[in-house]
Amino acid sequence: MAANVQQIRGLLADVRKQLMKKTNVVATGIGYKITQGKKTGQLCIVCSVQEKRAKTRLTKKELIPAHIQGVATDVYPTGLIYAQADHKARFRPAPGGVSIGHTYITAGTLGCLVKKNGTVYILSNNHVLANTNEAEINDIILQPGLFDGGSSDKNHLARLSEYVPILFEGAKSSCFLGRGAAALLNALAFITCSKTRLLPIRKAAGENLVDAALAKPVKESDVKNEILEIGAVSGLAEAKLGMAIKKSGRTTGYTTGVIQQIDATVKVNYGENKNAVFSDQLVAGNMSQGGDSGSAVLNNKNNLVGLLFAGSNNSTIINRIQNVFKLLEISLP
How far is 309 from 166, CA to CA, in rounded Å? Predict the structure, then answer.
């Protein structure tokens, strides 16, 4: 005869401490067993784990038995469980996943920390930190962003350092005349002791691969090398079809998803009849909303696989992280 809730409740009270001591277990409770992704009508003891590991990777002591005194068990991957945080609040030091933005935009998300030439920078989107190509280098970056109450006098976290320009449909491409004019104007500025310079942006190679930018913290102690509700970044990884992913963002907080497409070419609308086509993108399901732009996207091993920058009601568009790191010439701290 199948056990009922009351019987399992008594058993769980006896074995809970033992189960919670097992490596990777973050919660225990009573629920219905899930088989091949579908809920069954069988009551069981559910053990939630940070990540579901193959039995070959676990010792005998770490294994959760299939049955405890005749009651079935189930293992469910929840990830590390954090206290819920307000991603739109002011943070010092500021981790990834919180509200940030250029002084002229509403708000986006601080992705994560990166390093370039020995200096620590904040990584996010061009349209978050550089106001979609419209900003000037050294512009103030707020945390939280303007829409979340940030102000230049109280919430100045960083200054824009550089960005990869976004090429819009119908816009004139750069040419040798433009580059020559820029060099001449910068030379004149130097001769006249003017501090004004044309922007040191990363030239796109004829197509859009990333929506990315860097900001240098005013004080390195004001930023934190981890992501809210996720933790520290372990490394980089190549995104693959079917890969489970997660992100921490300003609007929807911690969410998970799956890579549904790779090698995608996507037309993205930036408003005001500005459209840009991006190549070599990743597509996931509905795991973001407006304001999550700039979020770092990781796999279940906390390896960085992408930079979230766009989406719709049912899809999320992500830059492949290898393109971001190559174009900005950055590495992990």
Answer: 12
